[in-house]
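Exercise: predict the structure of this protein bound to manganese (II) ion.
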Amino acid sequence: MSKIWQVKPPIPPELSARLNDHSNLVKQLLYNRRFIDAASAGQFLNTAYENLHSPFLFQDMQKAVDRIWQGINNREKICIYGDYDADAVTANAVLQQTFKYLGVETSSYIPDRFTEGYGVNLEAMEKIRDQGVKIIITVDCGTNSCDAAEFCKNNGIDFIITDHHEIIGPTPEAYALINPKNSADKYPYHEIVGVGVAFKLACGILSDYKKVSGRLSSRPLSRDPDESSKLDSGYPRKHSDSGMTQKEYAGGFEKWLLDLVAIGTVADCHSLIGENRILVKFGLKVLAKTKWIGLKALMDAAKIDLSAKQPDTYTLGFIIAPRLNAAGRLEHAGVALDLLIETDAAAAKEKALRLEQINLRRQQLTASVISEAKEQVLRIQDRKILALMGDNWPKGVVGLVAGRLAEEYYKPVIVLEKTEEFCTGSARTVGDFNILEAIKHASAHTVKFGGHKQAAGLTIKVEEFENFYVKLLEYAEANVTEESSKKILELEAELLAADLTPNTYNQIASLEPFGVDNIKPKFLVSDMQIVSCRSVGQEGKHVQFQLAKEGRQIPGIAFNFSMLEKNIKVGDTVDVACELLLDGWNGRSQLKLRIIDMRAGAQLT
Ligand SMILES: [Mn+2]
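Solution:
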């Protein structure tokens, strides 16, 4: 399906004047992101570590921290309970590493996706109780676990919830509830994810300098990963939040956790504006020199070469997170967590290779389910929602498949695994079509469902599939508009020949890290001549170009690209939609275009 190119309107001169500290291109990018005055632009661009909020702005933080220190001092058993996705697994690792640093042994519990499902379940709680655990800390789950909170109360366990999911229904009577979505809480930032909240708890625990140094008396303090701004000078210092004192975090140890925080934050697809932006920015720096042997082994196994290229949000979201997720999708997320907290290099290497194998299997499975699903699509491709079900389509990959098909067909997609009586699976949407509302409209034919506007999970009876589909299509008929089914390629500005320099690349890079709410800018470069091209990569699916504009030659690469399909050939003049890349060779950097789309020149509307 071809896309409609849309170049964003230029920044109006009166707004441009307000942003005078920046280049014209950066002004336009800020305007496109709705930062239209110096204050909001400055706030966005300023990612000083000190701008992180104090963990003690969570109303229950102090209470949780006090209880945890009491538990540590009394040698009470502590268990960390988290789910099986990358956010939860990194959150679990953040707390495990913090306790390890303090020389405290803890246990962890992750439910099995296939036999236990999502969230806190009572059978698991019973097992944990029987081990003599006195404190359970949940990560990335637990907010709606009223029965678990009650179970803990009745069994002499203090239940500390750290989570970021919406509170639906009554608030559980937990010992402490640390959740930015809790409206009773004053925490000023709501987009922080499970691992971010776990990190806040870690900071809270580490902020008691006296207790921390008491635990570490025989061992050296951690070295600060950010040598240039050592935190262990001048303790305590004032924090920017409402004059609160933010205590020092024991030699900057908490900064070593930031790579884990960045991975979970990007994996959970939350906004990268505000506090998440700071966490991810510093997390990427820390990742380049990670302290965690298991994470290092994972990157080695995935062939991430940190000496060749700094990691970016792509590395987090498309290389590291899928591997961590693969464990829970196909086997058990414990495999991923074990790797992240491994301390022996040889064992880490072995575990990383195992995870690599699981991920490979995950890729193959996804590909085979996609091809089976596509055969079904052939029969229903005119429908406004594609609902598909198949035998042996594993629960762990149906969400990935739905996402890929939604992107390819640019339609909402539901993919279900069919078992004897039920089908269970995932829904993904495109554009602003609300898939959760569509399922609600058909809910008379569902067993259960839940989720968000963009993505949902559901179970229906096999025999109800057709009735369910009819209702879905009824909703789609009324709600999918011509406008909403158009696939739009948004371009942030037109670049001229003079703009095609490493300097332009560097200006754009000042907005990194890119992700949700701050997506990597794509540009229009019009009237480029195709000087030469050749197919590269496996099966020649990618095309490498030499392009020219006003006498200046620029190399370009287009992934999964077909000249034939685009009806273009060498010598043609084309418009190019692209991102900018910077290639480093022998200390010299060269600008390169990552070509997203191409079309015959002079077509701009
Ligand atoms: Mn999460």
